[in-house]
Amino acid sequence: MSIKNKSYGHFDDANYEYVITSPFTPTPWINYLGNDGFHGLISNTAGGYCFYRDPKFRRLTRYRYNNVPVDTGGRYYYLKTDDDMWSASGRPVETELDSFECRHGMGYSRFLSRKGGISSELTCFVPLGETAEVHKLTVTNEGTSSKELSLFSYLEWCLWNAEDDGANFQRNLSTGEVEVEGSTLFHKTEYRERRNHYSFFHVNQSITGYDTDRESFLGPYRGVHKPLAVTNGQSTNSVAHGWSPIASHHINMKLAPGETRELMFVLGYVEVAPAEKWESKGIINKQPAQALIAKFDTTEKVNSALDELHTYWHTLLNKCHVSTPDDRFNRALNIWNQYQNMVTFNLSRSASFYESGIGRGMGFRDSNQDTIGFAHMVPEKVRERILDLSATQKADGSAYHQYQPLTKKGNSAIGGNFNDDPMWMVFSTCNYIKETGDFSILDEQVPFDNDDTTKAPHFEHLKRAFDHVINNLGPHKLPLIGRADWNDCLNLNCFSTDPNESFQTTQRGKSDIAESLMIAGQFVAYGQEFIALCKQLNKDELAADCQLHVDAMIQAVNEHGWDGDWFLRAYNALGDKVGSHENEEGKIFIESQGFCVMAGIGLDDGKAAKALRSVEKHLATEHGVMLQQPAYSEYDKYLGEISSYPPGYKENAGIFCHNNPWIVIAEAMLGNGDKSYDYFTRITPSFLQDIQDLRKSEPYVYSQMVAGRDAATPGQAKNSWLTGTAAWCYYAASHYILGIQPDYDGLSLSPCLPKSWPEVKIHREYRGAQYDITLSNPKGLSTGIYKLTVDGEVQIGNTINFERFNASHKVELTLEKA
Ligand code: BGC
Ligand code: NOJ
């Protein structure tokens, strides 16, 4: 069979679901539960873990990253009859099911199994605003005779600090503590000392038995695929003291033909005020847990929480709903891309199947960029996030590269000096204000480096971001790169020859020579945004002053940043060119082409068009646009981590999807609608259903990286879910292909469509107004001269003025002439 045709699932658009039909997908295909602090990762066989706010410091359940078999650890439900045992989610028990389906939906995952006449349906979700996963399990006897069976739940507790949990065994094999009361299994490790929180696993009916000690449940040297207690059909009522605490309920049931049993499990986290921690000596105060359990102890309560979740998502996704002639595009924009935007916004790059949840907090550049796909969805959260980021900025305008979600403090282990960081906050803030009209964010008093004695209005933080670039220019008057710019692996001041050193945090170079054309383009793009913002605020003098700096930067790019057919990428610490035809490898890079064109540099003199033709010629492949070419074949200490990767992977000539939408936008800015759309379709999962087996990662969300032409398997995707690709692709498609551009005065329309689209309909909510927009393209154009009407009234310009039109309106834009 051709590997190009193997499919493991399909979309179910009516239900906003992706239906996975095999437990054995090429990699675990995961989903996320929870929007508001309590989060779970859940694979297509219920593997994964959950945590409260911080996947490093508040992890509830254990997951074994990069283990064999892959995807070990999860919420497992075992079913056992006299003849057979199996898993309600298809794994880890190896028994093949008669039928299996995993339906990943918006904030929930549902597993359907059938074996020997018994069917089960397991739905896992985090109810809105709650600190718990709820698992609704129904078991039905589909046969004609009555059946006896045993059900076992299972999860393993993580001892809160996930890093310590996986490393410090001399301590943590002695600290585990549990309590059992009725059908609730409590996990209270370290509660006796400095923790004011515990977790629990509950089921809403009486149980036959339980286990809380892993070894007792699994049996010596056995795995989760074949626990001894399940094989024996009997749990051991073990109480864990140290070692590895788990939670497992055992319930015997007898089902008449056609009978269904419904069980509601709650896996919860609660915090207790220090003075109220204990019920009596050594016995924890269970009231907060009981209160949480009481919310989900009947089928009706759980069903209504699920309904609320559905309504929440449907309302949210309906804020921008598009209908174009291409269902694959609609599906991406209306469902999965927006959903992924929420997830990346919530988690930055912290916890996924590829991000272990212990390594990285919230990234400064990542989180700012994530807001551009999310500002129209939940603007209040974007406001809060921008202000949190602003508080980690330092007084000189630079920024901590990351912050920890629990403390919201800048992470000093990583530090700063990634010189693209500051300007992303200008972008996120302007985008937020254009979406919401909320200029008040600029007046918020925000500290520098979380030091409350240094508060200044958020606007001042933006100004310092701008100044940071102009205060850090190199010999060509281009921005100094610092440790790295957007490309974390272009470490021009690192010079590392020691394999034990981190590329990200080592800096040897004098740092006042190496310059970045990516930051130059970014500065021009977002410097212009800043100037436009100043003008909105009537700060004309400041605007004029900033304009001088932006003009100077454009001049520096034209003089020192143009290589003849494309924009250079950088100057290294020796002052040599990077990304030039003069180089043997790494002659052309995507980032500077994308950013300089997005900044508008070279639109007037042909450089932009030329740069994009070079991208097409040297970097474009059927699977997307590669980061650079030719790939580096040798490690070069003057380049850093980029040259450490094997050719074709990651930043060394992989297809780094995050910057593909920059080219989509750049082509749209040049009016090339077909080209722009073509690039968009090459990396967007809904267009790639027939190469699932090649791609390997989830076919409903973007992956960070697709292997490039030089790799062994071009087209193979890795690092799914947590990637700036999500927000940027949504932004490119909505702002540039469909051309829906929020602006200070209202929503502007500048579509650049594929020529073959005669009509597009868009429902867009904007600052509380509702616009039903029709884009008509009777002449088969991409862009050009148009006619815009609002409620039949012809408009001058392309903006739906918000002051005049702030209720429900019918908007029509007709492309009339190229
Ligand atoms: C990766 C980058 C990543 C960086 C920071 C590098 O190894 O290649 O994509 O941003 O680490 O964690
Ligand atoms: C992943 C990081 O999260 C992001 O910040 C960076 O821009 C890209 N890698 C490229 O290196």
Automatic annotation (TrEMBL):
<feature type="domain" description="Glycosyl hydrolase 94 catalytic">
    <location>
        <begin position="312"/>
        <end position="739"/>
    </location>
</feature>
<keyword id="KW-0328">Glycosyltransferase</keyword>
<dbReference type="InterPro" id="IPR037018">
    <property type="entry name" value="GH65_N"/>
</dbReference>
<keyword id="KW-0808">Transferase</keyword>
<dbReference type="InterPro" id="IPR012341">
    <property type="entry name" value="6hp_glycosidase-like_sf"/>
</dbReference>
<dbReference type="InterPro" id="IPR052047">
    <property type="entry name" value="GH94_Enzymes"/>
</dbReference>
<dbReference type="InterPro" id="IPR010383">
    <property type="entry name" value="Glyco_hydrolase_94_b-supersand"/>
</dbReference>
<dbReference type="InterPro" id="IPR011013">
    <property type="entry name" value="Gal_mutarotase_sf_dom"/>
</dbReference>
<protein>
    <submittedName>
        <fullName>Glycosyl transferase</fullName>
    </submittedName>
</protein>
<dbReference type="GO" id="GO:0030246">
    <property type="term" value="F:carbohydrate binding"/>
</dbReference>
<dbReference type="InterPro" id="IPR037825">
    <property type="entry name" value="GH94N_CBP"/>
</dbReference>
<dbReference type="Pfam" id="PF17167">
    <property type="entry name" value="Glyco_hydro_94"/>
</dbReference>
<dbReference type="Pfam" id="PF06165">
    <property type="entry name" value="GH94_b-supersand"/>
</dbReference>
<feature type="domain" description="Glycosyl hydrolase 94 supersandwich">
    <location>
        <begin position="17"/>
        <end position="297"/>
    </location>
</feature>
<dbReference type="InterPro" id="IPR008928">
    <property type="entry name" value="6-hairpin_glycosidase_sf"/>
</dbReference>
<dbReference type="InterPro" id="IPR033432">
    <property type="entry name" value="GH94_catalytic"/>
</dbReference>
<dbReference type="GO" id="GO:0005975">
    <property type="term" value="P:carbohydrate metabolic process"/>
</dbReference>
<dbReference type="GO" id="GO:0016757">
    <property type="term" value="F:glycosyltransferase activity"/>
</dbReference>
